[in-house]
Amino acid sequence: MKNTLRVIAAVAAFAIATPAFAQGGGGGGGGMRMSPAERAARQKEQLFAGITLTADQSTKVDTIMAQAGRKQMEAMQAAGGDRAAMMETMQKMNAERNDALKAVLTDDQKKKFEENLAAMPRGRGGV
């Protein structure tokens, strides 16, 4: 009887844990499950790690990133599923966004920005 209860408890625990694991749990990654605002905040955090922005710089950065995000969403919709065209467009748009962001920074901040950019993951979910 005790062994039967243990087996039932183990099966129940497994049944509960499996869907949570399949959904990604809540650990790292998960860029596609984030809202656009969450994705932008995470990207800003990564790009500007170790850089102290003034209030004016922060406002300009937020504006640039919001505009870039809207343009990218429009481009993805316009691509109509052509992944290669979309990736090429995204790379160009990211380069333009990064140039606009660097224009807001001081020379010292630009160096750190470049380091942060180089450290970011590439490919799916990268910048």
Q: Can you describe what's shown?
A:
By secondary structure, the chain is mainly α. It has a domain at 34-119. It contains five helices and no strands. The longest helix is centred in the middle third of the chain and has 25 residues, at 55-79. Mean pLDDT is 78; it is low at 9-28.
Estimate what percentage of residues fall within beta strands.
under 5%
Overall shape: globular
Radius of gyration: 21 Å
Q: Percentage of helical residues? A: over 70%
How many H/I helices? 5
Number of strands: 0
User: Distance N terminus to C terminus?
Assistant: 56 Å
Element-level helix/strand string:
HHHHH
Largest sheet: none
Mean pLDDT, as a whole number? Answer: 78
Structure classification:
mainly alpha
User: Which residue ranges are poorly predicted, with pLDDT under 50 across at least 5 consecutive positions?
Assistant: 9-28
Question: What is the gist of this entry?
Answer:
With 127 residues, the chain is an all-alpha fold. The protein has a domain at 34-119. The protein has five helices and no strands.
Task: Walk me through the topology.
Blueprint: H1 2-22, H2 36-47, H3 55-79, H4 83-102, H5 107-119
Helix pairs in contact: 3-4
